[in-house]
User: Fold this.
Amino acid sequence: MLFITYAERPLDFEHVEESFGRSARIYGWAKAKVAARRMYLIDANWKLVTENYQECYHCGPAHQEYSRRHVFARPQVQREGPDQAMYDRDAALGIALREVDCYAGDSDPGQESADCCRSAMLDGFLTGSRDGRPVAPLMGDFKGKDFDGGFSFLDVGPTSNFVAYPDYGLIYRTIPVTVDKTAFELIWLVDEHAVEGKDYREQELVWMWDYTSAEDKKIIELNQAGVNSAFFEPGPYTPMEADAARYVSWYLESMKRV
Assistant:
């Protein structure tokens, strides 16, 4: 995977290596292949697309399938027990994933921002799939072991986003097209030796996040319509929107330097 910058003085990648590099190695992404791609054309500004991705306050009412599977859709107090069980499972399996929080404006001076957030699956679900069962062979350090009952959100910079399960991964690409149109691409990764039709079926592999992204497209376009209204007034963020607030603060501070 290549990261390209046009900056005259590129930011250092120490945080990225500590967070994304370490996690990608554990999940086996160096020996992964692209299994599927989907493109969603969203009639909204790219900043609304990114802001929507960075919060899950909307997940409960808007993403019912996601919320039935992922504890991340719930308030923090309801996550603690399942998350601790996931950490204990990682330790028992010898999976050395590490949470890092240097997102957006919280990175050290001269460092590109990066973070790894771990979160648990709900009981009955091993991975992000329709029935909770595996959709592809285990990858990386999970091979020959078992699922840990969790998954990871990864960010490199404020707008390069990734999701990792033990059996598959996701790359998100947010591509501004015009001021009010954004291309949002999802790329699914599986183990390099996985064979379509034998080890995985594309329809089942993509189901969770294809379904969720179609819902997000509708939500974001409604948000854009609201922002365009002459009656629009911005409101405060909730605690479940903390990362969206961090993203907006980073963006506004960055624009001051332009």
Notes: Residues 26-228+236-257 form a domain with the Naphthalene 1,2-dioxygenase Alpha Subunit; Chain A, domain 1 fold (CATH 3.90.380.10). The CA atoms of residues 100 and 115 lie 5 Å apart.
